[in-house]
Amino acid sequence: VLCRSICATVFRLPASKPIVSSTFAIDIPNKVLHLAARGDIQAFEQLYRWFERPAFTLALRLCGQREEAQDILQESMIKLHHKLAEFRGDCPFWAWFRQIVVNEALMRLRKRQHLHTELTEDSHDLEANIVLPPQAADSHCLQRALAKLPDTTRSVLWLYHVEGYTHEEIAEMMQKTISFSKSQCARGGKKLRELLSDTHQAIHHG
Amino acid sequence: MADMTMHTHHIPLAQALKAMPMETPAASSWQMVMMALPNASSSVKKTQHKTWPRYAFACSLSALLLTAIFFNAKQAATNSAVTPDPPLENLIQQSAQLENLLLSTRSAIIIDANTENWQIELDQQLQQIDQRLSQNVAGGKEQADLWQARINVLRNASLLSMKQRFHAAQGSNLQVALVETY
To answer: If you average pLDDT over every residue of chain B, what do you get?
Structure first.
């Protein structure tokens, strides 16, 4: 709660701008970026505070473990510091930094061979627009169901549906085929729906 | 009936995932990151002494900071009768100092339920103040009052956290100590 309130202060936008929830909308003053790129620790700390939670959340959704997500956050921030001078400002800062976090998370999953764990059930019914039961509105419920998915499947789902990567981009990052990304996405969604429906039945039918 | 509800309240997958709240790490990694940065590591390493446990160093540094902030605040309060309110910048700066102090003093120490309740209560107060501040409060006295209230809450939260650490370092319990005192 404290961090939420601190972030609320940190993320506060100037009066003229509407408050939007997208992380892309975080307005990084050029001065802060320049100072941080030149080694100013205070400016870099500001960047850290701005992006600590978005980066941690992304890392957690991909790797599924809080301790590992914290490691990914740390390593990504250190890499950000090293690469900051390369940022040219031609895209939103988060879009650029996010790639560092995604690469770090996928690299760790690959090293631990988690990318070999995926949903492989044979299914010819790959729906494109999956809808979830009402339990999906309960974030704890959804989180528990997500945690039961294999790392690869969950990562593909998150990268495609939330981060907006294309199947081509996901395939390239994961060193897999496009059809692999598509099938993991569809199977993951289907599995998630099953898991949430099971929760619903367990609650309502004892 | 339940099944009918299910059918009428289906949520698109992407929408459900996007609605999930942001996560917060258990503790800030800033100190660890800073130690790993080339510019900061040399200066930070100099401040570490091998014979001092890290937590003791952090505690004493925090205590010094807190004392300095209290002293400033007390002095400001004493002077307030004859001088105008401190400028907003000072309040914001003081708030930021306390916020950093609180972040560095709060740790993964296991705390009892009562202390956690106080922490949650203080955090909620802080959240309410931040909410008010984010609603484009017109400048002047109201804004300054809100920042001052923020400082007061942060100060209480820091004190609680410091006392918790102090008692943990001594192997005692804050709750027991409070019962003995009051």
So the answer is: 69
Alpha helices, DSSP H, located in chain A = 2-10, 30-37, 41-63, 66-83, 93-111, 139-147, 151-161, 167-174, 178-204
* Higher per-residue pLDDT: B58 or A13: B58
CB pair distance less than 8 Å for A52 and B29: yes
Apex B116 CA angle, B114 and B122, nearest 5: 105
Instruction: Determine whether the interchain pair B30/A41 forms a contact, defined as Cβ–Cβ distance below 8 Å.
Output: no
Query: Contact B162/B62 with Cβ under 8 angstroms?
Result: yes
Contacts of B123 in chain A (CB under 8 A): 1-2, 5
Give the start-end residues of each E strand in A103-182. 131-132
ipTM score for this prediction: 0.79
Q: How many residues does chain A have?
A: 206
For residue B107, the SS3 value is coil
Helix (H) or strand (E) holding A73: helix A66-83
Q: Which residues of B touch A200 (CB under 8 A)?
A: 2, 6
Please tell me the pTM assigned to this model.
0.56
B50's tokens:
């091998």
- What gap in Å lies between CA A80 and CA B33, rounded to an integer? 11
Judge whether residue A18 has pLDDT over 50. Answer: no
